[in-house]
Amino acid sequence: MSAAEREKWNGIYASDRQGERFSGPPAAILDWVLPLLPPAARVLDLGSGPLRQARPLAAEGHLVLAVDVAEEAFRRAGASPPGIETLVADLDHWRPEPAAFDLVLAVHYLNRELAPRLGAALRPGGYLALEARVALPQPGAGIPAHRLLPGEAFRLHADLRLLRFEEKADKDEGLGRYLFRRSR
Ligand SMILES: C[S@@+](CC[C@H](N)C(=O)[O-])C[C@H]1O[C@@H](n2cnc3c(N)ncnc32)[C@H](O)[C@@H]1O
């Protein structure tokens, strides 16, 4: 990640109007996975932003490690409630502890280098939950690198079992939700 990209995110979170977009209600993928987690599950939230997923997880008694490169995300979030540990780190370089998490979560954060390693970060029986923008094929238009291609998530996580997914049109774009599980 470039310094310019980090500053872009810090600028977004420092701005009241733009930062508000990532401080709202949690993403719907959380409803898929919350009922499945064991008590006091260990959760890794990648590119967490200002904790909109981490807060409801911690409120259910889970232990969340929220990782984001933009320190302003955590400043915006204010004091972390019990159960949330925040870490400012660049996920292009930081690597998760192996077999340590009951859930790895990535909501609107795509890192194709890191993706194939996420299965190894899960405990046996652990879950990987993703929510992301998916590029809809449009004649003549290029596909932005930060968008998933339809079906790409299955290839990136071929080492895991797919439990549930949806890819659907949402506004002018696509939206994908995916839930995978590591075998026991
Ligand atoms: C679209 S926001 C999503 C934030 C949050 N997951 C949510 O759904 O509200 C993407 C987040 O990824 C973070 N990010 C981007 N590149 C990163 C990197 N290389 N390492 C860590 N975090 C990164 C940004 O700072 C930003 O908070």
Q: Strands, helices and their partners?
A:
Blueprint: H1 3-14, H2 16-19, H3 29-33, E1 42-46, H4 54-59, E2 63-68, H5 71-77, E3 84-88, E4 101-107, H6 118-121, E5 122-134, H7 152-156, E6 161-170, E7 173-181
Parallel strand pairs: 1-2, 1-4, 2-3, 4-5
Antiparallel strand pairs: 5-7, 6-7
Helix pairs in contact: 1-5
This protein binds S-adenosylmethionine (SAM).
CATH topology: Rossmann fold
CATH top level class name = Alpha Beta
Query: How many distinct folded domains?
Result: 1
Could you tell me which ligands this complex binds, including any ions or cofactors?
S-adenosylmethionine
Determine the CATH superfamily: Vaccinia Virus protein VP39
Q: Main beta sheet: strand number and arrangement? A: 7 strands, mixed
Q: What is the averaged pLDDT score? A: 93
Provide a descriptive summary of the structure in words:
The chain is of the alpha/beta class and 184 residues long. It has one domain: 3-Layer(aba) Sandwich (Rossmann fold), CATH 3.40.50. The protein contains seven helices and seven strands; from the N terminus they run αααβαβαββαβαββ. It has helices spanning 3-14, 16-19, 29-33, 54-59, 71-77, 118-121, 152-156; strands at 42-46, 63-68, 84-88, 101-107, 122-134, 161-170, 173-181. It has a seven-stranded mixed sheet with strand order 3-2-1-4-5-7-6. α6 (118-121) links the parallel β4 (101-107) and β5 (122-134). α1 (3-14) runs parallel beside α5 (71-77). The radius of gyration is 16 Å and the shape is globular. Bound molecules: S-adenosylmethionine.
